[in-house]
Design goal:
This protein has about 240 residues and is an alpha/beta fold. It has 2 domains: about 150 residues, Alpha/beta knot, CATH 3.40.1280; about 70 residues, tRNA(m1g37)methyltransferase, domain 2 (Trp Operon Repressor, Chain A), CATH 1.10.1270.20. It is built from 9 helices and 9 strands. The chain has a 5-stranded parallel beta sheet with strand order 2-1-6-5-7. The protein has a two-stranded antiparallel sheet with strand order 3-4. Strand 5, helix 3 and strand 6 form a beta-alpha-beta unit. The structure holds ligand 9WO. Ligand 9WO binds next to strand 5.
Length: about 240
């Protein structure tokens, strides 16, 4: 068997890991050795007797900044052939293409900041890739690290079945998901669309496609525009 995908998380709150990733799909994959997770306490790399990890910002202002020397020592202790990422609202928005790339790497090193952030020089010196999971501010990078790991782990070989891998391709097409229904066929006066009960697989596929397109146009004009551009460049007229 090949080496497991390795995740190292540098954090002031190692007890937040594996957290939700110890359950369900990711948790079973962890038990089966398909990936490994180590949460390392940044404070272990502090050098003074008070174990200081932060200091006041040059130029003034509220709050504290994480020290570059402590973070560099924490990164040096784990750095190898894996990409090192810093979770920050300033980062490049995380998208499925990035998730696929990271899942195909030997693993990841994730740096979680606290306070007002980290000294800029450690980002540059260590070539940290800055990644955001959305346009909001958290109290620290840890929940974002959990999100990124969840998205990667479900793509690792053997974590999900073959059926799910094929499903993944449909998001690659850049459309949002069509609506799902299960029994009962009528619930609180709401009927499941007749086409889904018809047994006509071709009509079901066409309905789902139309719904996916309608929902994408309505909710995410940005995704829709990208989808149309991709369809045009690949010579496919199906979406047009
Ligand atoms: C705190 C703050 C306080 C006053 C004015 C501006 C401020 N910005 C921040 C801030 O960005 N703090 C961050 C907290 C420092 C780095 C770790 N933290 C964090 C990461 N919050 N949110 C994220 C995050 C990460 C990935 N995707 C979305 C949000």
């Amino acid at each position: 068997m090949s080496l497991p995908w390795r995740a190292s998380v540098l954090t002031l709150f190692p007890d937040m890991f594996p957290g939700p990733l110890g359950q369900s799909l990711a948790g079973r994959a962890l038990e089966r050795g398909l990936w490994s997770l180590e949460a390392r306490d940044i404070r272990a790399h502090a050098s003074d007797k008070h174990r200081t990890v932060d200091d006041t910002p040059f130029g003034g202002g509220a709050g504290m900044v994480m020290r570059p020397d402590v973070l560099d020592a924490a990164l040096a202790a784990v750095s190898d052939d894996r990409p090192a990422l810093y979770l920050t609202p300033r980062g490049r928005p995380l998208a499925q293409a990035t998730v696929r790339r990271l899942a195909s790497c030997p693993g990841v090193v994730l740096l979680c900041g606290r306070y007002e952030g980290i000294d800029q020089r450690v980002i540059e010196a260590r070539g940290l890739e800055e990644v955001s999971i959305g346009d909001y501010v958290l109290s620290g990078g840890e929940p974002a690290a959990l999100v990124l790991l969840d998205a990667c782990v479900r793509l690792l070989p053997g974590v999900m079945g073959a059926a799910a891998s094929a499903e993944e391709e449909s998001f690659s097409a850049g459309l949002l998901e069509y609506p799902h229904y299960t029994r009962p066929a009528e619930w609180q006066g709401r009927r499941v669309p007749d086409v889904l009960l018809s047994g006509h697989h071709g009509e079901v596929a066409a309905w789902r496609r139309r719904e996916a397109e309608r929902i994408t146009q309505e909710r995410r004009p940005d995704l829709w525009a990208a989808h149309l551009a991709a369809a045009t460049h690949s010579g496919s007229q199906a979406a047009l």
